Amino acid sequence: MTQHSVRIWDLPTRIFHWALAASVVGLVITAKVGGNAMEWHFRLGYGVLALLVFRMVWGLMGGRWSRFTSFLYSPMRVLRYLRGSAHAEESIGHSPLGALSVFALLAVLVAQVATGLLSDDEIAFAGPLTRFVSNAVVGQATGYHKEIGQYLVLGLVGLHLIAIIFYVLVRRQRLVRPMLHGDKLLPAPATPSRDDLTSRAVALVVLALSAALAWWVSSLGAAAGF
Length: 226
Description:
Layout: E1 4-7, H1 11-33, H2 37-61, H3 75-82, H4 96-117, H5 135-169, H6 176-181, E2 183-186, H7 197-218
Antiparallel strand pairs: 1-2
Helix pairs in contact: 1-2, 2-4, 2-7, 4-5
């Protein structure tokens, strides 16, 4: 069978993916270590904030298969996929289950970063937005961030890894390599994602603006940390 090599994941999306994965690992480690490691915890947290803002924007203007519209499936399509009646296009980018995983993980990370910005450990670190809300809100945000949010993140990351292993070992689909070099072997031609110098330059500008926003948020508090 003739296979077609198609650019599915543009370079900005790939860099985002691995940078976010490394940052989440770093956040978990620094949170468990505590102490002086919390300095790096909140730095990584601001980095994740920048990455999430970038992904939200890139999900609207990025490459064909990085846009949210390419993997925004209706409940009926998800059910058909679960019943084994998948459409050929659903195996190109994110599958319906993969899409649910992506949206869930992004939502949980947004909640974790947001509550981190509002958290206060009452020892040495306080999020930069704590001074804008009541003590009750700070307490609720801190409780969620420490007791609920981190376990939701760990749980979804675990499910994400299990799903990858399932698709690789059971369904024989290569998921990791395309996220490294961008191309995917498909049984039929498909519309590739744009991944030229112009789109990469636009992504760099979006990332710079996202980083500037994260820096501005961090500057709102004198001793910000999460």
